[in-house]
Predict the 3D structure of the following.
Amino acid sequence: MTRSASWKVVLALGAACVVVGIWLLAQPFRSASVLALLVAAAIILSGVAELASAEVTSRPWLLRIIGAAWIIGGLVVLVWPGITPLALAIIVGVVLVGDGVIKVGTALLDDGDERFILGVSGVTNIAVGAFAAAWPAVTVLVLAVLVGVRTVLFGIGQMAFAVKLRQTASDPGRAPGVTAATGWPQWMRLGGAFAVLALSLGGLWISVSVNRAAPDRPGAFYSAPSPLPDGPPGTIIRTEVIDDFHEGATTYRVLYKSTAFDGSPSAVSGIIVVPDAAAPADGRKVVAFTHGTVGVASNCSPSLQGRDALAVYEGLDEFIAAGYVVAATDYQGLGTKGPHPYLVGEPEAMNALDSVRAAHNLAEARTGTDFAVWGHSQGGHASLFTGQVASSYAPDLQLVGVAAGAPPTNLENLFRVNIETPVGRILMAMGMQAWSEVYDDADLDQIVVPEARPAVAKIAARCLYDPSQIAASVPSSLLLGFTLLEVPPWETEPWTTILADNTPGKAPTGVPLLITQGADDPIMTPSVTAAFAAQLCSNGEIVDYRLLPGVAHLEGGHVAAPQVAEWIADRFAGKPAPSNCSP
C-alpha cells in the first residue's frame, strides 16, 4: 500500500476506533452480549489499524505482531458463544500482557527517542492485563472503561498519524521510518503515556482497596462453648464491656442462648446498652432493637464493630435519654458461626425476644418485663415477626408495641423490583445465598445461572457498613445485571414457599403497630407498604401508618427514630394508641 493511499485507510480506521470507544464508554453495562461485541470490535479495529500503519513505520514487524494479537483476541471473543464477562476480562487481559511485553522488550532494545514512551505504554498494558487476567471479577467493569478510553485515544493517535502521512506523501525525500507517534509533540506523547499509566494504576489500586474492605473476623468471645450451658433461652453465656460506646450508658457485648432456625438451642450475640441513670423501682423498660441489613457473613455482626456501628442503631440516643435499656441482637450467624437466616422471620424474632430475656438476666440492667420492639428495613421485618410470635414464644414478657420502618412485607415484590438495580441485586444475592444455606431443599443451582454463582458468593461474603464495603460488592452486582436467574425464584419451589413463609402479616400481633415508610424509597416500594398496613387494618390490628415525604431508604430509620421514640414512650405510659385505619 502506498503512503498516499494508506493515510486514508489509517484515518478511517482511527475514526472507527474513536466511535467504537465512545460507544463502549457510553453503555458498557447494557448486556453481556453488547459488552462482548463492543470490546471485540474495539480490539479488532485496533489490530487492523496497527497492521495498516505497519508498512510506513520504522518497526513494521512490531506493529504486525501487536496487530495480529489484537485481531486474534477479538475473533476469539466474537466466536465464543455466550462468552461471560469474566472470560472476556481474561482474554483481553492476556492480549494486553502480550502487547505490553512486546513493547517493553522493544523499548529495551531500541535506542530511539521514543523508547521511553513505548516502555511506559508497555508497563501500563502489562499491569492492567495481568490484573484483569488474575482477578477478572473485580476488573471486568474497570476493564470495559479502560478499553473504551484506550480505543478512543488510540483512534485519535491514528487520525493524527494519518494527517502526518498525508503531509509526507508528496515528499519522497523525507527520511523514512515515520512512526505512529510523530503526529504529536514529544512532551504531549510523554504526558499522555504517564496519564494513561496513572489512570490504569489508580483504577487498579481502587479495585484492590475496595476488594479488601472487610471487618475483622470474630474472636474468641463469639465462639460458643460445646455443649451450651444449661438454662432456658435468654441465659447469658458471657459478657464484656464495650468501652466508650455511648455517652451516659454502659454497653455490654453479650453472648446468650436462643433458638436456631431448626429449633435447636444456639448461641447468639448482641449488645445490651444500660443507661447510667438510676433505674426506677419497678425496673427499666426495654426496647428490643432489630438492625437492618449489614451483610450475611459472620464478621458482619454489629456488636463486633463497636463504635464503628453506632449508625446502625437508629434511635439509640433517644432511647438512652428516655432511660430505656436497649437490647440489640446480632441475629443467629452474625458474630457466631453461620449461616445467618437473613429475612427468615421466626429465628429473627426468637433472637430478638431472647435478647430481651438476656437483658432481664443481666443484673446491671435491672429491667422489668415490659418491652417494645423497633427496627428498620431487615429490622422492620424482624420487628413485625417479633410481634407475631411474642405471645407464644415469650409469654413471660409483656410486649406493648411494634414499630417497623420500611419493612419488607412482600418478598416476591422485593425480588421483582430490586433485580433491576445494583443495590437491589446485592440484597437479592445475600438473600438467595443465605436461604440456600439455611433451607435443606433450597439450592442456588435451582434458580441461578452457573456463571453468576461466584458473584453471588462474593457479595454474600461482604458487609455493608461503609462506602468502601458497599463499593466492593458493586462490581459483582453489575455483573449480575448481565445474567443472574435461570428461573424466577417466585415461580420455583421451594423458593416460592420460602418467600411466602417469610412474608409477615399472616398471624395476629395483638398490640399497636407503628409503620413508617419513606415516600422516595426505591428499595421498599411505598405502595406495597401502604397495602400491607391496609391489610393489617382489615385484620383488626391497631395501625399508625406514617409516610415520610422526601425520605429514601438509607436514611429512613434515622428520620423516623424521634417519632418512634415518642410513640414507644406513649405505649409504655399506657396511652391509647393512635390509628389511621379507615372505618
